[in-house]
Write a structure and sequence with these properties.
alpha/beta; 10-stranded mixed β-sheet; two-stranded antiparallel sheet; 11 helices; about 40% helix; about 20% strand
Length: about 350
């Protein structure tokens, strides 16, 4: 069994370390457990040193954010496998070894995720990953078990090992050298959608991303930024447009970006109708800031294209998810037709 490095990024997350580190320490025997600390000002480091001397600490002198924080941490990792684990995750017995054993069967498997259930409703899939992630032709992400804000109960309907488009950043298994070779998580995103962008590169480079159902974790979700936070809305809409811009072909870029922004504006109207004015403003601001900084996004696009000039495999949903969900009322992954 290859030893993996479990890396938990932390910033003033003492309450999560107290709540969830016990399960990680208990069920990760034989693997490294590392807390990469983004210059916390709470008692996180003192707590770790006093209570978990077996846990390694990488202490940054500044807050790098989510994406760059992991990039800096993985520069110091020499294990074949790295597991990027959110601090608000409860893991279960034997959550690591089956996935590592599966990934060892094929050199082309670059990344994998376990089944993600909701911590506060443990029979239900969780928003950030569920049973594996996909995107539609305009870059809107969804999962087996979650379409937009509709979550399915886990009745074993997705208990098959399956190739997916993206794996959740909440619990992201990756071969370290491939992570480093493909540029890791892009700091331009700061947080949200950076794992989808990375998995796009993985797919374009000819590697595979998988969902493995026998490993199960429970994710609080919104632990560092609740779903109702307009800042999260801003990042989700800005970054989803950024993911699309960075990765689609030049032949389709000219129409997909305007179409994506137009549908986002419809989402803003829906927020207004629901009385969520700040979220509507966040949608508009997110896309405005994307357009205002498009030269920066273009530079990141050029970097990605230089890293992975290949064509992507055909696991992008060929339709537009907004129409499927709100016009055709398809709320479950099983109702979609690839």
């Amino acid at each position: 069994m290859e030893q993996a490095a479990v890396i938990i990024l932390n910033f003033n997350g003492l309450h999560f370390l107290k709540q969830f580190l016990p399960s990680v320490a208990k069920f990760s025997i034989g693997h490294r457990v590392i807390v990469a600390d983004n210059s916390s000002t709470d008692a996180s480091l003192a707590f770790l040193q006093e209570n978990y001397p077996q846990v390694e600490i990488i202490a940054f002198q500044e807050n790098y954010g989510f994406a760059k924080g992991y990039d800096e941490a993985l520069k110091q990792i020499d294990n074949k496998y790295s597991i990027l684990l959110n601090s608000d995750v409860e893991v279960t017995e034997n959550w690591i070894n089956p996935i590592i054993e599966f990934m060892e069967t094929d050199d082309k498997i670059a990344a994998c995720q376990p089944k993600i259930r909701a911590y506060h409703q443990k029979d239900t899939f969780e928003h950030a990953g569920a049973a594996g992630g996909f995107i539609d032709i305009l870059g809107y992400p969804f999962c087996r078990g979650r379409i937009f804000d509709t979550l399915e109960r886990d009745d074993g309907q997705y208990d098959d090992i399956r190739k997916i488009f993206w794996a959740t950043g909440a619990c992201f298994f990756v071969k370290t050298k491939i992570y480093q070779r493909l540029g890791g998580l892009d700091p331009i995103f700061h947080a949200h959608m950076e794992e989808i962008d990375f998995c796009w590169r993985v797919n374009a480079a000819g590697y595979h991303v998988y969902f493995y159902p026998k490993s199960i974790i429970y994710h609080v979700g919104g632990g560092t930024m609740p779903a109702s936070n307009p800042r999260k809305t801003y990042l989700n809409f800005r970054n989803s447009t950024g993911v699309l811009y960075k990765n689609v072909s030049s032949k389709t870029l000219w129409w997909k970006i305007p179409a994506k922004i137009l549908i986002d504006l419809l989402a803003a109207v829906k927020f207004v109708a629901s009385g969520k004015i700040k979220d509507a403003q966040a949608v508009i601001l997110g896309n405005f800031h994307f357009l205002a900084n498009i030269s920066k996004w273009h530079k990141r696009r050029e970097v990605s294209k230089a890293l992975v000039p290949g064509k992507i495999n055909k696991i992008i949903y060929p339709g537009i998810l907004v129409f499927e969900r709100y016009l055709k009322q398809r709320k479950r992954f099983s109702q979609l037709r690839f």
